[in-house]
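Incident log entry.

Two folding requests arrived from the same account within the same minute. Monitoring flagged them as a possible duplicate submission, but the sequences differ. Recording both here for audit purposes.

Request one:
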Amino acid sequence: MKRNSRVLASVLALSLSVTTLAACSSNNNGNNSAPSGTSSAGTSEAKDTITALLPPVSPTYQDNFEQMAKDFNALYPNLTLKIEPASWEDMTQKLDTQVNAGSPPDIAFIGSEGISKYVQQGMVMDITDAATPEMIGDFDAAPLEYMKNGNGIYGFPAYMEAHALGGNKAFLEQAGIDYKDVQKNGWTYDQFREAIKKGVVKDGSKTSRYGFVFATAGVASKDYLNILVKNAGMPSPFTTDLKYAYTSNNYLEVLKDVRQLIDDGSMPKELSSVDAGKRWNMFLTGQTMITGKGLATFENSANKNNAKIEANDGSAVQGSIKAEYIVLPVPSFLGKDPVTTVAVDGYVTFRGKKEPTAEHKANVVKAAYYLASGKVAATTNNDLFVAHITKTGKEAAASMIVNRNPDNVAAVQVMLSHAAPARPDIPVELGAKAIKLEDEVIIPKLQALIAGEITPQAMYDAVKKAAISTFGEDGVVKE
């Protein structure tokens, strides 16, 4: 995909051990039946149309639009679900165009981190008063928190997916890496550094296989550093007392390690030019032992490519080899506890310039919940190889067969137990400033660091200077 979760759809976990917010209605049998407290088939209400702008969330997601709309109308005969498809390439542009015109769709599938942007514009719809207890109680608590900003709830999550690394099983075994132990117990940066050195294969002076490759170009330009720093005592750009965290000395140490892996020869010198597509191609063609960012659906993609190789029909990725995909955690730094970066994307509810009627608002909530739960969610999440975050989704998925490596399933469960907590307490204006600093300073400097044009110290000094200018001397971490 085109951002954290967009890789999910383009190459395309999480039964969380947390307590849900409330008990699920006994009516919710996994077939997208109407929860108690909402109108269901047979009631007489005014006609209404709910619009939804939806990208290809999973490989087969958009193929199901007609059936999804038909089933929703069968559930609510007075309601029509009108779905507008979008590609990941034009999703943001389409949504922003409609938002700027004051007529956004009622529902759009976006990443939860985008909610604050539209809160600032006053165009998202708080559904706190319209979502029934049965709806809220259907979701695992942790992912639902990501759909909040301040005291408001702005939609329902579709999944909560761990950002991990992925290894080629045969290569890991050849390098003597006990990946099952790593899946259970994690690894430190020093352990990881030595492991990926063992994965390097050279033919004379030419490297034919690297130990580790991570996409750092294009839309993936910020992923690498964001994932690493969470494991160095900085789970968020802001501390709990709202100080900007990346002025910490730990940030500098991570920057040094980013450069060190390239200097070791474990990563390509040309890493700054590796985008998400090239990263995955390098994995499938055996040019790297470990890849990142890895998502659950990568296992599915690797399996499908393996099947194409076996079929010998010419449809496999050119030059690819059979590869069994192994989920691996990101290493931890400086003795800090592991913290997993997660993608929580979902069905965000929007409003136009005019205040929606209570009836229309309730209907939008019904549609958003329909898409995020039961059979629709089970089908979509199984297609993505991510597990289910609603009780109704889990029930609907019970009869669906998904061919996943059980070690990978268990590894994701461990990582999700360390998931970075949602931070709806960060004020919108602070979040916007942090994003601006990231776009204007961190990303360009990181590219220069990876390319060997500046030192880790030079990047750290630039980030610290910009942070103090942005947040003030008292608004940043001092050590």
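Request two (distinct sequence, not a duplicate):
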Amino acid sequence: MNKKVFVFFPDGVGLRNFAFTDFKTIGEKMGFDITYWNNTVFSLKENLGFNEVKIEDQTSHPLLPIYSRARKRAELNVSRDKFKDDVYPTYKFPFNNRGLKNKIKSLYIKYLIGIYSSEKGIVKLRKKINKLERSTSKYNYCKAQLEAHKPDLVFCTTQRATQSISALLAAKDLGIPTVAFVYSWDNVPKAMQVVETDYYFVWSNLMKGEVLKYYPFVKEEQVIVTGTPQFEPHYNDTLLQTREAFFKEYNLDINKKYICYSGDDETTSPLDQHYLEDLANTVRSLNAEGENLGIIYRKCPVDFTNRYNAIIDANKDIIEVLDPIWSQVGKQWNQVLPTKEDFKMLYNVCEHSEFVTNVCSSTVFDFVAHNKACIYYNYEQPQLKKGIRDIGQNYKYVHFRSMPSKEAAVFCEDKNHLKDLVKQILDGELSNVEVCKKWYKIVAGKVPTKASQHIWEAIELILKNKI
């Protein structure tokens, strides 16, 4: 009898990796009976024809946001003191003190942080969170679903969603093995491991080391390196369009060479529009000297702002907007869901652009999969003032310490150098590709094309009690 696996979506971020890739097809070929345990508003049955069990009860304990916030800050405090590193406080979001209700919440969070900012305290805080979530109707609802469907294993597609805690506790309490996939390359040092599962699947040996470093209650045999399906579509040649077909579909000028500007969210890069403006001015200057360049602007899918509009309007002759093909089903960042069609667009943007520029984005890896260079902006904008976050902070984060050398990206440290860097890349005199490929292996693992297969192989070993 085929082993039944619940692929659990606590929110929409896992859809890209585990619904729109070949993940399901590979699992079924290996003989797994796959059901999607769906906590999102996106119907996998209606849209993709997948077997799904919908979680209709969305109840969480009213104190969960408070305790979760305290847990994250307590973990960051412990990391700061344990590793004697001031980078960890920079991961904290400011307290909300607007209005009496928020002030009271903030005071209570600070009280909890004061009590639990130790390794033993964090374990106690996690137990408290689990106790709160076990008391909810959602816990009982999910437990009943698991008892009815009897999966052999629950695979949670992200470790960072508080919405998943009650469901995974229900599975553990029923003796069902649980696995969490660590979703993003920067998540572990940022104290974003919300759930506790029997196993953790990670991108690389780098990430495995991080999980064991930051979470001493996790044993080495619980952390399994699988890679991530995130980059697998870049190796799917069936997505490739000819330059002529791609340019025609998106109304691009076949005679121009395009540079991709990959936008950031407002938190990461609050003045991001001005870097786009700098690139537009650079392109205009180079075109005046005989180049024929344009810009493909691809926004961050979860950026709801209109901050780029004035720059785009002023440079319509240069900038072509190719919005990601994502579906907005709510106002929260995790309610903007990817579509399968976006894989094809991103593949061809990478393939048919000369290179990419952005502020510290992981699109450096999307483009290096197509042997394309990346410029990282790393200079302050004159619009920077008190209360606006400096983007230079991003490059000090722990995940950037994984770079084998600074040559893994082309860093533009001065706006006046941008034109020269662009020209050198276009002329083939400057590239970060070879060093970036080494970085890509460090971060994403050695075989980025086989992640889905490796995940199913690891699940098979767990079910055979061989891990």
